[in-house]
C-alpha cells in the first residue's frame, strides 16, 4: 500500500477564487416575494464581488476568507399596496321640500400601486469566514456500467449535477422562484461537470462566518417620501394635496408594517434580518451554498497515477482514507492510501 | 404605478343644468303622486334609455337618486352598478325628492319626466321654482354661473393654503338663492369639491364656465 500526498497552496486557492468571484458576479439577482402585513414586497438583490488581493489564507487548520467585499447592485424593493376606492363624503343639503342627500363622487378608483424603492449601489456587504476542507465522494448515476477507464474518457452530458444543484438551492432557499434556481445552478455547473469518473470533491464547509451590511453611498433617504411620491406622482397638484391628506392613515400603516425609521442602514438591516429573512438567505448563500456547488479542487478516484499515452491506457489506482491537513500558512495537503 | 384620480373632475371646467356632467346635479320635488316615464338624453337629442318613476307619498323613502350616465352604454363598463336589462323602476316617497346626477362618462346628459297622460312634468333642461341645482368643482380658479336672464354668480375655488386644504368632511354646503333679482349672494368662495347649492325660485337654466 502506498500513500499519495497532494498539496495545494494558498496562492493556488486564491487563483481558484478568481473563478468563483466571476461566477458570483455572473449570477442573476436573488429575487423573491414576501408579505408584510397587508402589503406585498418583492425584492431583487444582486452582488458584485471585489475580494481584493489574496482573500484566502490558511490558519488554525482552516481555510480563512478575509473581508470579502461586495456591492449590492441591484438592490430593489417593490412595495405593492392596494388603495381602496376613495369617494367624497356624503353631503346633505336643505331644499324647500326637505333634506336631500347627494351621491358621493368617486375621487380615486381602487388601485394597486407598485412602489419601487431602489437602493442599488448604496449598500455594501462584508463577508468573512473560516472553513474546514471536507472531501465528498461524487459517484454519478450517469456512469452506469462503464469501467473506470471508460468513465475517465467519457464526458458527462447528463443533467445530474444540474439537478443536484437545483435541489440544493431550492432546499436551502425555498423562497426563490424556480426559474431563478435554474439560472443560479447553471452558473456553477460548468465548474464541476467533467467526465463520468468517480471523484473526491473538496468543499469548504462553514465553521464560522459573518455577513455585515455597510453603507457606502447616500443613505439620507426618506423612504416614506419615496413611497408617497410614487403613489401620488401622476396626480395634478390640487388632487395631490387632497390625496396626501386623505391617505395619511394609509401612509402611517405602511410605515408601521415596514418599520421604517430615519436611519436607512438600520432599517435595511432589520428588514433583511427579520421581516424578509434576506439576511438568513445571504448567510446561507455565502456561508454554505456557494461552497457546496464549488469544490476547491477535485481528485478522480481511482487516481490516475500514470496518464494514458503512447498507445497505453492510464494507470488508475483506487484511493482510501482521505485525510486533509491544513499546514498553515503555506499549503493544504491531502493524503490518501492507494491500493 | 401611481394613484389615478377621476379624470372627469379635471377634464370638465364647465357644465349646464341643461346638459349635465359630473360637476352638476339637480334636485327636484315631485308635485303629484303617480307613475311617470323618464327619458334620458345625450346632448339634448339622443335618447339613451327610459325608466319608470313612482311617487307615493306614503312610501318611507325620502328620496331617490338617478344616475343618468348609467343609461349611457359608453360609460356602463365603469359604473359601480350593472347596466339595466329592463327599464329600471325607481320609487320616491314623502316629499318626493329626486336627485338627478351624472357619475361619469364622456357625454352631457339630461332627463324628462312624463305623467300617465303624456304631459311632460319635469325637464332638467328647464328648471323652475322649487328645484335645486348643485355644483361641485374641483380645480382651483375663477368660475361664473349665469342664468337665463344673464345674472351672474361669481365663484372662486381656492388654492391650497400652506399646502393644505380643509378636510373634505368638514365643509358645509354654500347656499345661494336665485330669484327675479338675481343670485343672493352673488359671490361664493369655496374649497375644491365643496357643494354650492342654488335654490331656484324662477324658471332658469344655469350655465357654469371657467372665467
Uncertain stretches of 5 or more adjacent residues of chain B: none
Number of helices of chain A: 9
Radius of gyration of chain A: 29 Å
Query: Could you describe the largest sheet of chain B, including whether it forms a barrel?
Result: 7 strands, mixed
| Helix/strand class of chain B | mainly beta
Largest sheet of chain A: 8 strands, antiparallel
Give an account of the 3D structure.
The complex is a heterodimer of chains A (339) and B (211). Chain A has helices spanning 10-26, 148-153, 160-172, 178-189, 223-232, 237-246, 248-258, 264-275, 278-293; strands at residues 2-9, 30-36, 39-50, 56-59, 62-83, 86-87, 91-95, 98-102, 106-108, 111-118, 123-138, 199-215, 297-300, 303-306, 315-317, 319-327, 331-338. Chain A is α+β, with helices and mostly antiparallel strands and 339 residues long. The radius of gyration of chain A is 29 Å and the shape is elongated. The mean pLDDT of chain A is 83. Helix content of chain B is 2%, strand content 43%. In chain B, strands 5-7-2-10-16-13-14 form a seven-stranded mixed sheet, with no helix packed on it. In chain B, strands 1-17-11-12-15 form a five-stranded mixed sheet, with no helix packed on it. Chain B is globular and about 55 Å long.
Short description, anyone?
Chain A has 339 residues and is of the alpha+beta class.
Sequence-ordered SSE layout with sheet pairings:
The complex is a heterodimer of chains A (339) and B (211).
Chain A: E1 2-9, H1 10-26, E2 30-36, E3 39-50, E4 56-59, E5 62-83, E6 86-87, E7 91-95, E8 98-102, E9 106-108, E10 111-118, E11 123-138, H2 148-153, H3 160-172, H4 178-189, E12 199-215, H5 223-232, H6 237-246, H7 248-258, H8 264-275, H9 278-293, E13 297-300, E14 303-306, E15 315-317, E16 319-327, E17 331-338
Antiparallel strand pairs in A: 1-17, 2-3, 3-5, 4-5, 5-10, 5-11, 6-9, 7-8, 11-12, 12-13, 14-15, 16-17
Helix pairs in contact in A: 3-4, 3-9
Chain B: H1 8-11, E1 15-16, E2 24-29, E3 34-42, E4 46-55, E5 63-67, E6 89-92, E7 97-101, E8 109-114, E9 120-123, E10 132-136, E11 141-146, E12 152-157, E13 174-179, E14 182-184, E15 187-190, E16 195-200, E17 207-210
Parallel strand pairs in B: 4-6, 5-7, 12-15, 13-16
Antiparallel strand pairs in B: 1-17, 2-7, 2-10, 3-4, 3-8, 8-9, 10-16, 11-12, 11-17, 13-14
Amino acid at each position: 500500500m502506498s500513500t499519495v500526498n497532494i498539496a495545494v497552496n494558498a496562492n493556488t486557492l486564491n487563483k481558484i477564487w478568481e473563478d468563483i468571484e466571476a461566477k458570483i458576479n455572473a449570477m442573476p439577482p436573488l429575487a423573491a416575494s414576501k408579505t408584510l402585513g397587508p402589503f406585498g414586497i418583492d425584492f431583487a438583490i444582486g452582488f458584485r464581488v471585489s475580494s481584493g488581493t489574496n482573500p484566502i489564507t490558511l490558519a488554525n487548520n482552516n481555510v480563512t476568507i478575509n473581508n470579502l467585499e461586495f456591492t449590492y447592485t441591484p438592490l430593489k424593493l417593490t412595495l405593492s399596496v392596494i388603495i381602496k376606492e376613495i369617494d367624497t363624503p356624503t353631503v346633505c343639503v336643505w331644499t324647500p321640500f326637505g333634506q336631500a342627500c347627494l351621491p358621493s363622487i368617486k375621487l380615486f378608483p381602487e388601485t394597486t400601486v407598485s412602489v419601487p424603492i431602489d437602493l442599488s449601489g448604496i449598500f455594501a456587504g462584508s463577508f468573512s469566514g473560516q472553513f474546514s476542507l471536507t472531501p465528498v465522494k461524487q459517484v454519478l448515476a450517469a456512469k452506469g456500467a462503464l469501467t473506470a477507464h471508460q468513465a475517465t474518457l467519457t464526458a458527462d452530458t447528463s443533467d445530474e449535477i444540474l439537478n443536484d444543484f437545483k435541489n440544493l438551492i431550492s432546499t436551502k432557499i425555498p423562497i426563490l422562484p424556480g426559474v431563478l434556481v435554474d439560472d443560479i445552478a447553471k452558473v456553477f455547473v460548468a465548474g464541476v461537470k467533467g467526465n463520468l469518473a468517480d471523484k473526491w470533491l473538496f468543499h469548504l464547509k462553514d465553521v464560522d462566518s459573518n455577513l455585515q451590511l455597510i453603507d457606502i453611498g447616500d443613505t439620507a433617504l426618506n423612504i416614506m417620501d419615496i413611497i408617497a411620491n410614487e403613489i401620488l406622482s401622476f396626480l395634478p397638484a390640487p388632487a395631490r394635496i387632497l390625496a396626501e391628506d386623505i391617505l395619511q392613515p394609509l401612509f402611517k400603516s405602511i410605515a408601521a408594517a415596514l418599520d421604517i425609521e430615519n436611519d436607512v442602514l438600520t432599517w435595511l438591516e432589520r428588514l433583511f434580518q427579520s421581516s424578509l429573512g434576506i439576511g438568513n438567505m445571504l448567510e446561507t448563500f455565502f456561508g454554505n451554498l456557494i461552497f457546496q456547488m464549488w469544490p476547491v479542487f477535485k481528485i478522480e478516484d481511482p487516481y490516475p497515477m500514470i496518464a494514458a499515452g503512447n498507445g497505453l491506457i492510464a494507470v488508475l489506482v483506487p484511493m482510501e482514507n482521505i485525510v486533509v491537513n491544513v499546514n498553515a500558512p503555506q499549503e493544504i495537503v491531502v493524503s490518501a492510501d492507494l491500493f | 404605478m401611481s394613484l389615478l384620480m377621476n379624470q372627469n373632475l379635471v377634464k370638465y371646467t364647465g357644465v349646464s343644468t341643461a346638459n349635465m356632467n359630473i360637476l352638476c346635479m339637480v334636485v327636484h320635488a315631485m308635485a303629484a303622486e303617480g307613475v311617470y316615464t323618464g327619458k334620458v338624453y345625450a346632448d339634448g337629442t339622443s335618447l339613451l334609455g327610459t325608466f319608470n318613476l313612482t311617487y307615493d307619498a306614503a312610501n318611507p323613502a325620502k328620496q331617490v337618486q338617478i344616475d343618468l350616465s348609467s343609461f349611457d352604454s359608453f360609460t356602463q363598463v365603469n359604473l359601480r352598478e350593472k347596466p339595466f336589462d329592463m327599464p329600471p323602476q325607481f320609487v320616491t316617497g314623502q316629499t318626493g325628492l329626486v336627485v338627478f346626477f351624472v357619475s361619469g362618462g364622456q357625454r352631457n346628459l339630461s332627463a324628462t319626466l312624463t305623467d300617465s297622460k303624456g304631459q311632460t312634468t319635469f325637464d332638467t333642461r328647464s328648471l323652475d321654482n322649487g328645484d335645486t341645482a348643485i355644483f361641485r368643482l374641483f380645480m382651483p380658479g375663477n368660475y361664473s354661473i349665469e342664468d337665463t336672464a344673464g345674472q351672474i354668480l361669481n365663484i372662486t375655488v381656492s388654492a391650497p393654503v400652506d399646502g393644505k386644504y380643509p378636510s373634505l368632511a368638514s365643509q358645509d354646503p354654500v347656499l345661494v338663492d336665485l330669484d327675479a333679482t338675481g343670485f343672493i349672494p352673488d359671490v361664493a368662495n369655496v374649497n375644491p369639491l365643496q357643494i354650492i347649492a342654488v335654490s331656484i325660485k324662477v324658471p332658469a337654466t344655469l350655465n357654469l364656465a371657467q372665467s
